[in-house]
Amino acid sequence: MELLKVSNYDEMSERACSFIIEKINHTSLPVLGLATGSTPEGLYQHLIRSYQNDEASFNHVHTFNLDEYVGLPKADKNSYDYYMNEKLFKHIGIPREQTHLPNGNAPDLKQEASDYESLIQQTGNVDIQILGLGLNGHIGFNEPGTPFSSRTHVVDLDDSTREANARFFSSINEVPEQAITMGIETIMESNEIILLVSGESKAAALARLMDGEVSEDFPASILNRHPNVRIIADVAACSSL
Ligand SMILES: O=P(O)(O)OC[C@H]1O[C@](O)(CO)[C@@H](O)[C@@H]1O
């Protein structure tokens, strides 16, 4: 893993944007793995700016999001479908049929998870997977204890994750109890991973990741075994290293 220490959130976002633009400008059919949450919002703003400045086109790009809540209508402002459309897709001219998220409203969720996994496999490897880091070490919605061999699946969200995400909802009771997420093995098959980490609240999680011990109790620790991981972290997130 390569750690790129930057001064602040904006620099983290800008650096990540440059890596992505470089990739999509030099790949004929690039596949991006995308994340939600607060962390990648700045990256998406930079990507939009690059598109507006004619530095990048997204016509030929395919995307797969890591996860989606179960049971939120797509039009709900907390669904990840809504998030991606509002914060990125509708601003960059990407054909919407080339963007993919798991359907958290599918009648058969297990089947949906398996179909999503198959679609990723058919499209080919994800070229760059963007990840955020959960306070408990989750990546995607793979909570502590998830087998490293997992593929896209339905998960019961940890109370700590529901609490962390309650800030986006009117109360914790509104936060869904389940989600569909790419599995850890699915994520590990990406050619390249960029993990974004910002703020002091993530310092302990980043320190645990960097200490090198690989354990299913801390899902992100598996990244120590991936051959091509770049961590872009700001000074505050690096404060416990
Ligand atoms: O970026 P945040 O909001 O701190 O969240 C960390 C991670 O947790 C999630 O919100 C849940 O998967 C991810 O989308 C994100 O990468």
From TrEMBL:
- Its name, as the record gives it, is Glucosamine-6-phosphate deaminase
Give the top-level enzyme category.
hydrolase
Domain Glucosamine/galactosamine-6-phosphate isomerase, which positions?
11-225
HAMAP family the record matches: GlcN6P_deamin
Task: Name the GO cellular-component terms.
Answer: cytoplasm
In which organism is this protein found? Answer: Virgibacillus massiliensis
Q: Which GO terms describe its molecular function?
A: glucosamine-6-phosphate deaminase activity; identical protein binding
Q: Does the keyword Hydrolase apply?
A: yes
The free-text function statement in the UniProt record for this protein reads: Catalyzes the reversible isomerization-deamination of glucosamine 6-phosphate (GlcN6P) to form fructose 6-phosphate (Fru6P) and ammonium ion.
InterPro entries named among the record's database cross-references? Glc/Gal-6P_isomerase, Glucosamine6P_isomerase, Glucosamine6P_isomerase_CS, NagB/RpiA_transferase-like
Enzyme Commission number(s): 3.5.99.6
Task: Cite the CDD domains for this sequence.
Answer: GlcN6P_deaminase (cd01399)
Instruction: Report which gene this protein is encoded by.
Output: nagB
What Gene3D superfamilies does the entry give?
3.40.50.1360
Q: Which UniProt keywords apply?
A: Carbohydrate metabolism, Hydrolase
An example GO BP is: N-acetylglucosamine catabolic process
Check the record and name the PANTHER family matching this protein: GLUCOSAMINE-6-PHOSPHATE ISOMERASE
